[in-house]
Amino acid sequence: MLHLETFTQWVLGPGHPTLPALLILMLLDVLTRTIVQSIRPRVRKEHFLRTLLKKILLWLMVIAAHQVDLVLSQQQTLRNAVAYVLLGNELFSIVEQMAKAGVPIPEPLRRAIQALRGTETEKPEKPEQAQEKTRA
Description:
single chain, 0% strand
């Protein structure tokens, strides 16, 4: 067990509450997605594998941030910043999954998530409209 702890500290850096919290929120996100899939079976099963692969990529980002902190002789500043952003992202994802399952989400929270994600409130622009904006 000592070797696993040593390896984990070498890869992720010293312990910080954001790391187990991030792991727990990622697991909760996967669990809520699984529940939504059972409630709404039209969700494709390959999304589950894609979700797991994305979670692995997010942990690779945390590892990369720690390595940059080491090079810059930082006190895990970048790693913790990345972890905070990912924590917020996972929390939003969990709330979105709950909304898909039919759980009532308070309207202010729903609007905040839509604004941060840029979904449902913005319609995709046509290429002509985007060009007009750049000319103006």
